[in-house]
Design a protein that fits this description.
The protein is α+β, with helices and mostly antiparallel strands and 420 residues long. It contains 15 helices and ten strands. The strands form three sheets. Strands 3-8-10-9 form a four-stranded antiparallel beta sheet. A four-stranded antiparallel beta sheet has the order 5-6-4-7, with helices on one face. Helix 6 crosses helix 7 and helix 14 crosses helix 15. Bound molecules: (R)-mevalonate. (R)-mevalonate binds next to helix 9 and helix 12.
Length: 420
């Protein structure tokens, strides 16, 4: 690579932006886009900052969770996600809404050691638990600020010569990632010094088995289709789809992806690390014999009942949640007051998203309901100006099949004043 990029991170914002402009031969419109979207808060968040890349934010409606109504901000580029979440939430709201319960909220971590005397090492940890907890809680100023600090120290064998020392943190309102990592580094140094072992690493785990939320919701047959009879059939087909997601890894992955469409979008709106949520869901879904769909749906008497226990490792304070300006606004829109409420809302969106997807898939198919939004997106992707979109969509609807070529042709015709 050209040596000029080696010191890139040391340069001022203006010099960096100029280098990018020259390198990519950006024109003045493109430069303007970069400078219009940059801001000072973000400049301090990441290295080699250039600009802010924005995504659409929409508000999902109809959420009734534990008896309270919620508007839910969602950040996503996928056209159908907000509409589907609102639609799933509407179906679930008809019978007392979604019930959500936080089972636990800890962040877990591990210190991995190469050990020759496993028994001696295990005994050392057993005998020094309170000392290790004390070291952990003294290592970070926020250790006891938001929650009850370090806990649950135990050893776990990984292989014949590797052992993990597991530790959890009650980080209260924060996610706790940084605090726990500092704790783990401090404790692991102490352990390595006092035992005959070699420390390999100390880091939190995104396998978030102690940040679980359980959500349950039900829909009566008449809210799944126009008639009760048709609704019963839809319910049975959704239950079958749920069963298939327990058996087939290909379907399970897509089933879970649909759930994450909603979860990631809300997590982003609240300033959380959505990669942590992704990692947590997929590892949790693989925690039994085989990777499976994380939610289940079954027919119970007159109802379709959905259940899901899902890891939601998020924070209400700290990290990006305290820095990104829209996060506070989004929390205000949602009316959420603490991390447990946030976890419940996020998990509920996952369940509603899943219901809407399954219902569409087993009845009319996914494309029909999404067509309008997809055509809008196609119009924009092929050069339509926002004010031209409705007209382009109306013309696209008249076509038997649509693609980029037909969209471009329609845009040209509209601009030249002609019609198809
Ligand atoms: C698309 O982003 C998500 C779905 O594929 C989810 C699913 O199939 O369950 C519709």
């Amino acid at each position: 690579m050209d040596p000029q990029w080696k010191q890139f991170y040391k340069l001022s914002y203006l010099k960096r932006a100029k280098m990018i402009e020259n390198h990519a031969h950006l024109n003045s419109d493109e430069d303007g886009l970069i400078s219009k979207n940059k801001n000072e808060v973000s400049q301090n968040l990441i290295e080699n900052y250039l600009t802010n890349f924005s995504l659409p934010e929409g508000i999902a409606v109809n959420f009734l969770i534990n008896g309270k109504d919620y508007l839910v901000p969602m950040v996503t580029e996928e056209p159908s996600v907000v509409a589907a979440a609102s639609n799933g939430a509407k179906m679930l709201s008809q019978n007392n809404g979604i019930s959500a319960e936080v089972i636990n909220k800890l962040v877990d971590g591990e210190m991995i050691f190469k050990v020759s005397d496993k028994l001696g090492f295990e005994n050392f940890i057993k005998d020094h638990k309170s000392e290790i907890i004390k070291i952990a809680n003294q290592s970070h100023p926020s250790a006891l600020k938001h929650g009850d600090g370090a806990q649950k120290i135990c050893t776990r064998s990984i292989s014949s010569n590797y052992l993990a020392v597991d530790m959890s943190l009650d980080a209260g309102e924060s996610m706790g990632a940084n605090t726990l990592n500092t704790m783990l580094e401090a404790c692991s140094k102490f352990i390595a010094k006092k035992t005959d072992s070699q420390l390999l690493m100390a880091i939190l785990t995104n396998y978030s088995a102690h940040a679980l939320v359980k959500v349950v919701g039900k829909v009566s047959f008449d809210h799944l289709a126009k008639s009760k009879k048709a609704g019963k059939m839809v319910a049975q087909r959704i239950a079958e789809a749920s069963e298939i997601a327990q058996l087939d890894i290909k379907r399970a992955t897509t089933h879970n992806k649909g759930i994450m469409n909603g979860i990631d979008a809300v997590a982003m709106a609240f300033g959380n690390d959505f990669r942590a949520l992704e990692a947590a869901l997929h590892s949790f879904a693989a925690n039994s014999e085989k990777y499976h769909g994380i939610s289940t749906w079954e027919v119970q008497r007159e109802f379709l009942v959905g259940k899901m226990t899902i890891p939601i490792p998020v924070g209400f304070v700290g990290g990006a949640t305290s820095v990104l300006p829209l996060v506070e606004v989004n929390k205000k829109i949602a009316g959420i007051k603490n991390v447990k409420e946030e976890m419940k809302v996020i998990a509920s969106v996952g369940l509603a998203q899943n219901l809407a997807a399954l219902k569409a898939l087993v009845s009319e198919g996914i494309q029909k309901g999404h067509m309008n939004l997809q055509l809008k997106s196609m119009a924009l992707a092929n050069g339509a100006k926002p004010k031209e979109v409705d007209q382009v969509v109306a013309e696209l609807r008249k076509q038997s099949s649509v693609d980029a070529r037909s969209a471009k042709k329609i845009i040209r015709m509209i601009r030249s004043g002609k019609r198809e």
